[in-house]
């Protein structure tokens, strides 16, 4: 039994198909000066061939799987197109008169070294992208076919040292039951695609591709990150039962989909979805979301070199408006910056500081960029029910300024004859302690609130999220966070405003008790959590959770709150929550 990183859930077993991309021998030889030009041409040909291979895979998959994942291949094409990539290699060919493969390998080593010095995991992972693109060009230089995953006769579990996103995108569900690799991490593109394809996967097993032969029986548990080589009948029996349990559970949860999220005493709380692309509206619907409570627009901006145009953004927001019907979607203006969304876009300085230029501060500094987004959202508002929300507001002046720019965008559209919803509701994310304290003032000028406890916890508890030494302090059940939520709800309700909560804590069933008790109007979460949350809410009584919340507000520590909630969940509602 081996332990790796489970990156795509599910339990499967079957015969292994080991793909050992033959370790590439890189030929190294000098070339005579008169051949330099021809060698450079050979290099460019290999790059061109790589580009058209990637473009055709991307197009094929866009047609079959939807375009939301082809951006990964497009990123690879961008790397190929980067002038520095070709320049370093071709200069090496002409200056040192060496063959193209050798020059390319040296250029790749140079680029890759840069990534090794970066602490950030996401950026580090991009090193793989560069290696994979380089590997493809090398294959093409050597006249080998880089795509080795063509058709398996029977369903298999793929075992490889690594899979490129292009490889992963070629896996067919049904033919490939699951896969496992020596290297990789949860944030690798390969992992993202595995989840999109719903193929169970475990990565980071170090040397699994050497420990197993094609035809061996192998089992992978993508939830636990476990791989079992040649499992015994007992082990298989255990996992068969687990598979059945998982299926039954999904079916049970599916039955909940169309039931209201209502307590036993008929108090309703809206459960909506946090999403990052228009395609996810379908997933949200499958899990019974009543609309989209948070569309994080940052993903339109990352992994690319050019800013998304008004038209491109408009198409995305319009799709959301149309797909979410008859419900509503809340579009949040871009929250670039901080520790989260590192982008190759070279915009402003100091974007990395969580206390620096990020979110609404960034938008108010880059007004033309902000206005493009506002125009796109306004235009899309004509096609369904949309709301607009600003992130990280810390003062009323920010809200006023943002609204002014919104009004200007509206006027411009009006003059150009674009239809839009003139009554588009404008909300404020409450995610700074400042916004909590002035919630009553913000409530006078906003149409709704959404509490972002991910950021609120970090700012309220003064935790630098990238500092592991203080990570233990992070606790959304900390009395200061609960009191913040309580006072924001009161400020909002006293002005008749609706208030939702869209931080990660909203997807945890134990928190359902306190969040419902604090009288939030809605919770927005990863759609996968909605069925379980609904199941718990349907077992609760509003009048009782209100009492529980009132008691919890008097407790001294997060741990006391947690224990209290667990005890009450069990005693009053027969729920064993962790
Ligand atoms: C939050 O801060 O709680 C939130 C929902 O926003 P994000 O996670 O995108 O910062
Ligand atoms: Mg936030």
Considering the chains and any ligands shown, give keywords for the structure.
eight-stranded mixed beta sheet; eight-stranded parallel β-barrel; binds phosphoenolpyruvate; alpha/beta; binds magnesium ion; 578 residues; single chain
Mind explaining what this structure looks like?
This protein is α/β, with parallel strands linked by helices and about 575 residues long. It contains 22 helices and 16 strands. Strands 1-8-7-3-4-5-6-2 form an 8-stranded mixed β-sheet. Strands 9-10-11-12-13-14-15-16 form an 8-stranded parallel β-barrel, surrounded by 5 helices. Strand 12, helix 14 and strand 13 form a beta-alpha-beta unit. Helix 1 runs antiparallel to helix 3. It is globular, with a radius of gyration of 26 Å. The structure holds phosphoenolpyruvate (PEP) and magnesium ion.
SSE blueprint:
Blueprint (H helix, E strand, L loop, with lengths): L1 E2 L1 E4 L2 E9 L16 H30 L5 H11 L1 H14 L3 H17 L4 H21 L14 E5 L4 H6 L5 E6 L7 H9 L3 E3 L4 H4 L5 E5 L4 E4 L3 H24 L13 E6 L4 H7 L5 E5 L13 H15 L3 E5 L26 H7 L1 H14 L4 E6 L5 H21 L8 E6 L2 H5 L1 H5 L4 E4 L1 H8 L18 H16 L3 E4 L7 H9 L4 E4 L4 H8 L4 H11 L5 H16 L5
The structure holds phosphoenolpyruvate and magnesium ion.
Phosphoenolpyruvate binds next to strand 10 and helix 17.
């Amino acid at each position: 039994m081996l332990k790796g990183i489970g990156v795509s859930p599910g339990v499967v077993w079957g015969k292994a198909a080991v793909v050992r991309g033959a370790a590439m021998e890189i030929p190294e030889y000098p070339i005579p000066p008169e051949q330099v030009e021809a060698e450079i041409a050979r290099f460019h040909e290999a790059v061109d061939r790589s580009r058209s291979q990637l473009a055709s895979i991307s197009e094929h998959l866009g047609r079959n799987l939807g375009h939301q994942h082809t951006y990964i291949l497009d990123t690879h094409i961008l790397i190929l197109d980067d002038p520095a990539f070709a320049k370093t290699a071709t200069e090496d060919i002409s200056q040192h008169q060496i063959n193209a493969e050798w020059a390319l390998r040296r250029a790749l080593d140079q680029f890759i070294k840069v990534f090794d010095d970066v602490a950030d995991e996401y950026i580090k992972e991009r090193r793989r992208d560069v290696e994979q693109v380089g590997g493809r060009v090398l294959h093409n230089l050597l006249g080998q076919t880089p795509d080795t995953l063509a058709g398996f006769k029977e369903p298999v579990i793929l075992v490889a040292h690594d899979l490129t996103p292009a490889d992963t995108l070629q896996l067919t569900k049904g033919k490939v039951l699951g896969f496992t690799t020596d290297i990789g991490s949860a944030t690798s593109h390969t992992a993202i695609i595995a989840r999109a394809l719903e193929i169970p996967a475990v990565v980071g097993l170090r040397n699994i591709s050497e420990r197993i032969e094609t035809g061996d029986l192998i089992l992978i548990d993508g939830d636990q990150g476990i791989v079992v080589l040649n499992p015994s009948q007992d082990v298989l029996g255990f996992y068969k039962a687990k598979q059945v349990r998982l299926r039954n559970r999904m079916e049970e949860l599916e039955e909940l989909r169309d039931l209201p999220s209502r307590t036993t005493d008929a108090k309703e709380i809206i459960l909506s979805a946090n999403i990052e692309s228009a395609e996810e509206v379908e997933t949200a619907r499958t899990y019974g979301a009543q609309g989209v409570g948070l569309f994080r627009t940052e993903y339109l901006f990352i992994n690319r070199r050019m800013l998304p145009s008004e038209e491109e953004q408009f198409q995305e927001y319009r799709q959301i408006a149309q797909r979410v019907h008859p419900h509503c979607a809340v579009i949040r203006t871009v929250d670039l910056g901080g520790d989260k969304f590192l982008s190759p876009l070279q915009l402003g300085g100091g974007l990395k500081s969580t206390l620096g230029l990020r979110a609404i501060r960034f938008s108010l500094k880059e007004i033309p960029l902000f206005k493009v987004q506002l125009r796109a959202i306004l235009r899309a508002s004509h096609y369904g029910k949309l709301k607009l929300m600003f992130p990280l507001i810390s003062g009323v002046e920010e809200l006023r300024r943002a609204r002014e720019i919104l009004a200007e965008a509206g006027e411009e559209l009006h003059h150009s004859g674009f239809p839009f919803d003139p009554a588009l509701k404008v909300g404020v994310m409450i995610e700074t302690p400042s916004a909590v304290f002035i919630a009553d003032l913000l409530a006078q000028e906003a149409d709704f609130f959404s509490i972002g406890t991910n950021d609120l916890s970090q700012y309220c508890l003064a935790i630098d999220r990238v500092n592991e030494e203080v990570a233990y302090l992070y606790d959304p059940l900390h009395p200061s966070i609960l009191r913040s939520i309580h006072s924001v709800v009161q400020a909002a309700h006293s002005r008749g405003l609706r208030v939702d909560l869209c931080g990660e804590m909203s997807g945890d069933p134990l928190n359902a008790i306190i969040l419902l008790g604090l009288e939030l109007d809605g919770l927005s979460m990863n759609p996968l959590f909605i069925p379980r949350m609904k199941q718990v809410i349907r077992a609760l009584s509003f009048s009782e959770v209100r009492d529980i919340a009132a008691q919890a507000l008097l407790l001294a520590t997060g741990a006391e709150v947690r224990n209290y909630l667990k005890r009450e969940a069990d005693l009053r509602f027969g729920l064993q929550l962790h």
